[in-house]
Design a protein that fits this description.
Strand content of chain A: 15-25%
Distance between the termini of chain B: 19 Å
Radius of gyration of chain B: 17 Å
Number of domains of chain A: 4
CATH class of chain B: Alpha Beta
Number of helices of chain B: 6
CATH architecture of chain B: Alpha-Beta Barrel
Order of helices and strands of chain B: EEEEHHEEHEHEHEEH
CATH architecture of the largest domain in chain A: 2-Layer Sandwich
Largest sheet of chain A: 6 strands, mixed
Distance between the termini of chain A: 55 Å
Number of strands of chain B: 10
Oligomer: heterodimer
Number of strands of chain A: 21
CATH topology of chain B: TIM Barrel
CATH class of the largest domain in chain A: Alpha Beta
CATH topology of the largest domain in chain A: Sulfite Reductase Hemoprotein, domain 1
Helix content of chain A: 25-40%
CATH superfamily of chain B: Aldolase class I
Chain lengths: ~550, ~180
């Protein structure tokens, strides 16, 4: 894992002091709320429905046990004893007092963390594959580039007042777990015919009101050109992105309006025009960072673990959890543990301070001191010996963290919705809870198999409903919440935007509607066919007929 | 309007002229880009210094061969969160422009350091904040990660500092 050096420490401390000064000026009245607003947003502090919300950056979703324990401590000291893990691999605290915010930032700085640029019209926290460094299918760990981009984008003077927020995702594996095609910029590492690695640069994807899949502006960018090329893209966007309407201000609209070809030409012209300095400093910096991400010293273990197999035979609950919640590790004898933060009837992504401490302990004892936050709002222990899995599972079960629904119907992604958010038009959490109760029967979930359900409480789409296999969008119709259902979305390498099925449903009808859709799937699927594949084969018709026939 | 340069208030002797306004007999003038390009022959024959006022949508490349003959470029911030002038400023510096680069409009202390870093060296600051607030704001951060920025005094470039035996990033023009 990356560790701060003296420069990183000093940078974050100076930034925290700067924010303390700004907060004091606001509290004394020297700054108006209008003047203070952009300053607090640049430090992740939003004013929500009931209180301030602080969004803490978890760069590329990677945490140590010590950092997770500090997040737990902050939740206990300054919030109500819990935190909410988000779809951008961050954590949010929902009950913060303005005057406490500088102290919280200091407590974060103590463990090499911050809240810089988790909000505002700037480059946001860079996200990546939550299985990075552990996945069996990976070409290279994308996190060194993630860290390079974190540093480069931190307080970038040219790109801190962009037309709109800007999100970058990086993946080093062919199976895309980072949704790079639906980001403002997506970077995908791949190899050319000569076996050299380079980056595919994808621009203009996004969700929100106008969901779009990004276009490739460079097929194969050599790694040392990355920073220079990204600066050219950012400059074209900063100068030409729309500023007259905030709903048309994302880079996807610019790419769409001027066309992919002209956009590419603008970027290439800007890139050619700028000074092209030697990039040996960037290369050395990347090498320096990469050393921190060297793989841990894995033990040489047999692929087959006798104790693991035996535990599965004795405990059907453990066997079921192992079947659903483990991912294939690149090293024999190890597994990736996915901890579901989606218990039946729970709030997706929420964890109590106590649960955070349990996860921190497990990471330290059994997981090379590493945790990841996934964009599906779950926590990952990337490196666990198969021999330790039963012990880990028992500790998780005791803490209420052993929901065996990873990747299944109960593993629902949901935004905070109208329970917290000032922008929401409908509640998300109660809908997620009703669906997870509907599918509480684990046999039914297993029978349905791999499924992504995503819920957003407004068209800004923080719950990424457009790319859910089943997407649910909460809207307001004359003061009543109602929910539109879309089918067929995906954020993986075969990305697609879901299609609206038909008229919406009242909140209490949604879970039944989802059940009807899934029963229809079970009736029509071919052997081994997942929901998305069946939908793509059949289209919306049978689902529409089943849902609306009786109405 | 007081002008902040090198952290001190400086009198502004420039005369701003509109697109079709009358030119004064003598004195340094600032004109909009269209007029500069249209009246170049007359303006450059005046024997005094010339400045141009760009809008947010003017392209710095449009200045072309005229750029080395300019003594002042004024860039607007119609709102503090309209960040186009940051890119235009840095572009102009990258093109080798080394004379005064002035920020006007909604210029606020908490953005001052960013403006300095992309190459601005003069600021129309109004009277909303005391001078001490501006001075403090100009040195809030002593470090930056990005290379190829414009720095003063003790400000350090982190990546360059970490790898001190590497080549310098680019020849930095001295602003102001």
């Amino acid at each position: 894992m990356y560790r701060y050096d003296e420069f990183d420490h000093q940078f974050v401390r100076e930034r925290t002091n700067q924010f303390r000064d700004q907060t004091e000026r606001r509290l004394s009245g020297a700054l108006t709320e209008d003047e203070f607003r952009p300053l607090r947003l640049m430090n992740g502090l939003y004013l929500q429905l009931h209180a301030y919300m602080l969004r803490v950056a978890i760069p590329y979703g990677t945490l140590s046990g010590r950092q997770m324990r500090q997040l737990a401590w902050i939740a206990g000291k300054w919030d109500k004893g819990y935190g909410h893990f988000t779809t951008r691999q961050n954590i949010q605290y929902n009950w913060i007092k303005l005057e406490d915010a500088p102290d919280i930032l200091d407590a974060l700085a103590d463990v090499e963390m911050h809240a810089i640029q988790t909000s505002g019209n700037c480059i946001r926290n860079v996200t990546t594959d939550h299985w990075a460094g552990a996945a069996a299918d990976e070409i290279a760990d994308p996190r060194p580039v993630g860290e390079l981009l974190r540093q480069w984008s931190s307080l970038h003077p040219e790109f801190s007042f962009l037309p709109r927020k800007f999100k970058i995702a990086v993946t080093g594996a062919p199976h895309d777990r980072a949704a790079v095609k639906v980001h403002d910029i997506g970077l995908r590492l791949h190899k050319n015919e000569a076996g050299a690695a380079g980056w595919e640069v994808i621009v203009g994807g996004g969700l929100g009101r106008t969901p779009m899949v990004g276009v490739t502006v460079r097929d194969f960018l050599p790694q040392h050109e990355l920073i220079g090329y990204l600066e050219a893209i950012m400059r074209v966007y900063n100068l030409h992105g729309r500023r007259d309407n905030k709903y048309k201000a994302r880079i996807k609209i610019l790419v769409h309006e001027i066309g992919a070809e002209r956009f590419k030409a603008e970027v290439e012209a800007e890139y050619a025009r700028r000074p092209h300095p030697a990039t040996d400093v960037e290369e050395r910096e990347l090498a320096r960072i990469a050393a921190y991400f060297a793989p841990p010293a894995f033990e040489k273990l047999p692929r087959w673990s006798a104790s693991f197999e035996e535990a599965k035979l004795h405990s059907p609950d453990f066997a079921r959890w192992a079947k659903n919640n483990l991912g294939p590790h690149r090293v024999d004898g190890y597994a990736i543990v996915n901890i579901s933060l989606k218990p039946e009837g729970g709030i997706p992504g929420d964890a109590t301070a106590g649960q955070m401490r349990v996860m921190a302990d497990l990471a330290e004892r059994h997981g090379n001191d590493e945790l990841r936050v996934s964009h599906a709002q779950n926590i990952v222990l990337p490196h666990v010996r198969k021999d330790d899995l039963f012990t880990v599972w028992q500790a998780l079960a005791e803490a209420g963290l052993a929901a065996a629904n990873h990747g299944l119907a109960g593993d629902i992604i949901a935004c905070p919705g109208l329970d917290y958010c000032a922008l929401a038009t409908a509640r998300s959490i109660p809908v997620a809870q009703s669906i997870s109760r509907k599918f509480a029967d684990s046999k039914k979930q297993d029978e349905i198999g791999k499924l992504k359900i995503n819920i957003s409480g407004c068209i800004n789409a923080c719950g990424h409903h457009h790319v859910g296999h089943i997407g649910i969008l909460g809207l307001d119709k004359k003061g009543e919440e109602f929910y539109q259902i879309t089918l067929g979305g995906s954020s993986a390498e075969n990305a697609s935007i879901g299609t609206i099925l038909g008229p919406g449903f009242a909140g209490h009808e949604v879970a039944d509607a989802i059940e009807t859709i899934l029963d229809t799937y079970l009736k029509h699927r071919e052997a081994g066919e997942e929901f998305l594949a069946t939908y793509r084969r059949l289209g919306p018709r049978p689902f529409k007929e089943a849902l609306y026939a009786t109405a | 309007m007081p002008l902040l340069k090198n952290n001190v208030l400086t009198p502004d002797s420039w005369i701003s002229v509109e697109a079709d306004g009358d030119l004064p007999g003598t004195g340094d003038v600032i004109v909009p880009l269209a007029r500069l390009l249209r009246d170049w022959a007359g303006l450059s024959a005046r024997g005094s210094r010339l400045g141009v006022r760009l809008s947010n949508t003017d392209r710095p490349e449009a200045l072309g061969d005229v750029l080395p003959r300019l003594s002042l470029i004024v860039l607007p911030f119609p709102a503090f969160n309209d960040g186009r002038a940051y890119s235009i400023a840095r572009s102009l510096r990258e093109m080798g422009y080394a004379q005064e680069l002035r920020a006007t409009g909604n210029v606020l202390p908490d953005q001052l350091q960013f403006m300095l870093q992309v190459g601005f060296d003069a600021f129309e600051i109004g009277e909303r904040f005391p001078l001490e607030t501006w001075r403090k704001a100009s040195r809030q951060m002593s470090l930056a990660y990005q290379r190829g920025l414009f720095r003063r005094g003790s400000e350090a470039e982190i990546w360059t500092e970490r790898h001190t035996d590497a080549e310098p990033w680019l020849e930095q023009p001295h602003a102001g």
